[in-house]
Amino acid sequence: MARCARAPALSVTSICASAMSAEDVLRSHIAAGHGRFRGIRHSAAYDEDPAVLGPLGGRYPAGLYRDATFREGFKHLQKLGLSFDAWMLEPQLPDLIDLARAFPDTTIVLDHVGTPLGIGRYKGKREERFAIWRDNIKALAGCPNVNVKVGGLPMPFGGWRARMAGSDETSQTLAAQWKPYVDACIEAFGVRRCMFESNFPVDRFGATYTALWNAFKILAKAYSADEKTALFSGTAKRIYRLNID
Question: What is the separation of C-alpha 245 from the centre of its chain, rounded to a whole number of angstroms?
Fold first, then answer.
């Protein structure tokens, strides 16, 4: 929600203590941004097991992206030329598929490859659930308005690393861990709808900044120069309409 008397932190669900409509607030942010306001990022991350999200739990209800009030705000994004970044957990991907199909003209970016889970009630089940995740990624890729940020995998949710104590993983180890997810996303979406991302400082839980980007270089080694450009910069420039060299 828009936080009263604070810097712009906006949701398309409701306006805090304001008579303004969601469209009015979005237009105000566009004006205040002087050409830099590109879209909205709104999490819907939820799981009934509090051990999964830890201190991030309880912020949003189950099924937020299906909520009628949320969608009343969401409908304004396309006509205002704004994109939507979605962060959720792997079991929630069907909610985003439904949202993308309901708003086929709104540009949507799935963050963190949909956040595979390997902690809490999913401990030891990450590989077991890979096929479920992959099927949902393929379904999302069937929506031409959806793109994917390939990254976020060093976060604790995947369960690759239990805690930060100990030596940092090498870029080779990280590449091997992430390869099934990276390959599946690129195969489903193609390089021009995928963008490598860092999610620092949160990614620091499982990787150093240098090791993360070197892991992406390892994973992209077989791609052409044009394909690498798309993955490392081109897709992001196009989606977020960035005028940079």
Answer: 24
| Torsion sign (Cα): 61, 181, 242, 106 | negative
pTM of the model: 0.91
3-class DSSP state of 102: helix
217 burial (CB, 10 Å; 0-12 / 13-18 / 19+) is: middle
Q: Do residues 95 and 143 touch, judged by C-beta distance below 8 A?
A: no
Number of neighbouring beta carbons within 10 Å of residue 4: 9
Cα 120 from chain centre: 21
Q: In what order do the strands lie in the sheet with 194-196?
A: 39-43, 83-87, 108-110, 146-150, 194-196
Structure tokens at 207: 């990787």
The rounded radius of gyration (Å) of the Cα atoms in the chain is: 18
User: Mind listing the pLDDT tens digit for each residue in 112-132?
Assistant: 999 999 999 999 999 999 999
d(CA 196, CA 72): 31
State how far the Cα of 168 lies from the Cα of 211, in Å rounded to an integer: 9
- Strands 83-87, 108-110: pairing is parallel
Cβ-Cβ contacts under 8 Å for 75 (sequence gap 6 or more): 103
What is the Cα–Cα distance from 149 to 195, expressed in whole angstroms? 5
Alpha-carbon span 104 to 219, nearest angstrom: 31
d(CA 63, CA 94): 10
Chain segment 164-210, per-residue pLDDT in tens: 777 899 999 999 999 999 999 999 999 999 999 999 999 999 999 99
Question: Do 84 and 108 form a contact (C-beta atoms < 8 A)?
Answer: yes
